[in-house]
Amino acid sequence: MEAERLTLSIEGNDCPALSWGEGPLVLALHGFPDLPLTWRHQGPAFAKAGFRLVAPTLRGYAPSLRLPDVRVATLARDTLSQLEQLGGGPAVILGHDWGAVIATAAASLGGPARVRALVTLAVPHLGGALGALLHHPAQLLRSGYMLRFQREAAARAWLGAGDLDGVRALWARWSPGYTPEPEALDAVLDALRSPEALTATTAYYRQAVRPGAGESWRLMLGQVPCPALLLMGEDDGCIGWDFARRSAKPALFPAGLTVTGLPNAGHFAHQERPDEVNTAALAWLQRLGQSAHSHSGEP
After folding, report:
1. Angle CA(200)–CA(228)–CA(249) in degrees, nearest 5?
2. How many CB atoms lie within 10 A of CB 11?
3. Residue 220: helix, strand or coil by DSSP?
4. How many Å apart are CA 50 and CA 57, to the nearest integer?
5. Buried b (16+ CB within 10 A) or exposed e, 137-168
6. Are 32 and 97 in contact (CB under 8 A)?
7. Distance CA 182, CA 179 (A)
8. CA of 278: how far to CAs of 39, 73, 153, 170, 258, in Å?
9. What is the pLDDT of residue 130?
10. CB burial of residue 23 (10 Å; 0-12, 13-18, 19+)
11. What pLDDT shows up at residue 291?
12. Among 6, 143, 178, 214, which residue's CB has the most CB atoms within a 10 Å radius?
């Protein structure tokens, strides 16, 4: 199934997006370094299950979206605004990597009236992750690239060396043994070739720890009021599986949290093992009564 291309808005700026299917809305947020095309295997599967999956471009990843503010609270508001642009009403949010962080913040900010279920991949709730570091200090080494990204010039130099060798290295390290489909990785490389793109997309890491991030951290560390599913590749080279499991704190999820590991999958599990990811996510939604059929108005 081919994706439909559409344009959403972020503060009046064009936001390219991909859409599959018709039905109850699933908003799918990509991560770093990635694009909406990352959901090319989920879109058709969710459409077949009766959903409409829409994948917008995040701030920084398109020339029209080189906006200075990429704080998580701002990105969460972008997400809730796009839910309204797509019809409003409670929706499912699906997020990978930074998209998982933003999706979690949006669920916290919007409440169950806006977000009825949350599915995240590759990044656990940061409220539990900070404590888990005490038991899994090796995660600090995995996350060492974040320190490099604190200096704008260093981030550009490392990622942009050669033919974006740093971007390629992250994909290879985070999903060991996985050979990305050329269409996916080439699109990411093309989107990040300019210094402006590298600056904008790595600004997420800098603004998270700069003055003015207080509201973002309150959202990232706060409770999630809707049911949540965390899917983790057990071979993830970015966020360790054992670390992610220890990060799962039921107190942060009063409506319930399910954690599922995916064997033989890394950080980009939804691309590496799309059938397993789709089956796990759709079955979980079905068990919740959050299937497309249950929200279609049909008997």
Report:
1. 90
2. 13
3. helix
4. 23
5. eebeebbebbeebeeeeebbebbbeeebebbb
6. yes
7. 9
8. 11, 28, 38, 24, 15
9. 81
10. middle
11. 59
12. 178
Tokens representing 227 are 């049911």
Residues 6+ apart with CB under 8 A from 255: 112, 224, 225, 226, 227, 228
Instruction: State residue 296's pLDDT score.
Output: 52
Q: Which amino acid is at 111?
A: G
| pLDDT reported for residue 129 | 86
At 144, give phi and psi (nearest 5°): -60, -25
CA distance 98 to 288: 25
Q: Which helix (H) or strand (E) holds 107?
A: helix 98-110
Written as six digits, the tokens of 14 are: 């064009």
Full set of structural domains in the chain with CATH: 4-295 (3.40.50.1820)
Task: Tell me the average confidence (pLDDT) per consecutive run of 10 residues in the chain, 299 residues long.
Answer: 97 98 98 98 98 99 98 99 94 99 98 98 94 93 95 96 96 97 95 97 97 96 97 98 95 98 98 99 92 53
